[in-house]
Amino acid sequence: MDPKAFPNSVEAERGIIGTILITPDVYVLFGNRLNADDFFVSRNQAVWMAIQDVVKEGRLPDATEVIDRLTVTHLLEGAGGVTYIMSLLDYTSPPVVAEQYVDIVKSHSLRRQLILNAHKTAKDARGELPPGEVAAAAIQALLTTIEDRQEPDAKSAADIVQARLAKTKASLESRESNLGIPSCFDELDELTLGFHGGNYIVIAGRP
Fold first, then answer.
1. Can you tell me the distance from the alpha carbon of 31 to that of 16, in angstroms, rounded to the nearest whole number?
2. Which of 111-125, 164-178, 185-199 has the highest mean pLDDT?
3. What is the value of pTM for the model shown?
């Protein structure tokens, strides 16, 4: 990919990896938020995969362990060699700063995928596929991209809806009129189970 055409932050990628290589125990703070394809630089992708492999084997992913892993898997040269990996140690940051770098890398990763999706949709739209199929494929690609790059602990819309329905069903079965602050409109309270903290409820109707 052309660095000028696709959003990226090489500095943030180096900061994340360098911090982990020299202080490997910080991986538990944010390491599970990133996948190899979130990184723009191919060498950084290779190093990150090695870091994940070392972690899966129950060891701390310091520079020595990561270099050993890349050597065993014959990927050291593709990852830039020992010289590049050791150079990453110059980009270490405090954990709180490295965690901010994760947000930057994740954001750029999502933007790149959205750009690729848009390019594919534009190409398909110029082809012979029916417009409906092109639109459906574009929507599916968008949903898949968002789902794949969603934070591991984040809840999907489907999960939130299911949890809400389950709560509503439990309330109705227990014959509770509402579980929150009543609105003084009986029918509304039956639908919403009352007002709850964190809710944003808009009431609208035709005049």
1. 9
2. 111-125
3. 0.67
